[in-house]
Amino acid sequence: MVSSEQRRRQLAREKYDRQQANRAKAQAKARRRNAGIGAAVAVVVLAAGGAWAGGVFKSDAKKTDTANAAPTASAPAAAPSPVKGCNPPAAGAPNGKKWTSEPAMALDTNAQYTADLETSCGTVTIALDAAKAPHTVNSFVFLAGQNYFDHVKCHRLTTSGIYVLQCGDPTASATNPGGSGGPGYQFPDENLTGATYPAGTVAMANAGPGTNGSQFFLVYKDTQLPPSYTPFGKITGGLDVLTNIAAGGVQGGTGDGAPNANVVLDKVTTTKG
User: Fold this and answer.
1) pLDDT number for residue 222
2) Family per UniProt (predicted)?
3) Does 33 score more than 70 pLDDT?
4) Structurally, how many domains does the chain consist of?
5) Could you list the residue range(s) of the whole structural domain that residue 155 is in?
6) Are 243 and 145 in contact (CB under 8 A)?
7) Phi, psi dihedral angles at 94 (to 5 degrees)
8) How far is it, in rounded angstroms, from Cα 51 to Cα 61?
9) Which region among 50-64, 111-125, 247-261 has the lowest average model confidence (pLDDT)?
10) Residue 212 in domain
């Protein structure tokens, strides 16, 4: 026969076991909840920061069917740049145009094309390589002719390991770090076999193979990258402009982010011959 003391101990043990089981269930539920929160945060960080850290020069990864969006309102006057040699950008805002498909080929691949990037920190001149990157140069010339690049902020500067200034995202602003905007169309990579990225190289940013849009980067110091970014031009003037921007550093003191210099493409033009 079970004594009253033994019965009391049995009931106490059962109560303890139930408490332990309930505690274990609560802990497991908390772990699942925290894991879900952690996963959601990770997605947000990757989505918002992919253009900065998840691959070198990510750009617009989404296609859109919007064509010829109406121009946006003029931006308010900008404050002076904290970097010597840079001036307030010209008044105006990106026109925000979009197209449903890559522009028709209108390029003479045997001709010489030059691009002038008139920035708020000085002019950079580029010899475009129409022979080796015809689709890329054709798109760049088309967008420049549409004033697409005018008033677009150069949103990213890297100063550690990779030495580039990235431009071409019309959505970039003081409140938006940039990296996801584009013209609405994409086109394939070109000129990747044996591609290298010495100082003076101009190449396309992308979000993976075949996702070129409007974003590009200017290499101001020899940089080691995989041959994944279409080189389409060489800087022939204004490399000192880029090195001055780089000397101004990155906001927050990191090696990758928005430049301290308020670099804006006041006007981009291309010429043939």
Assistant:
1) 98
2) Belongs to the cyclophilin-type PPIase family.
3) no
4) 2
5) 113-272
6) no
7) -55, 145
8) 10
9) 50-64
10) yes
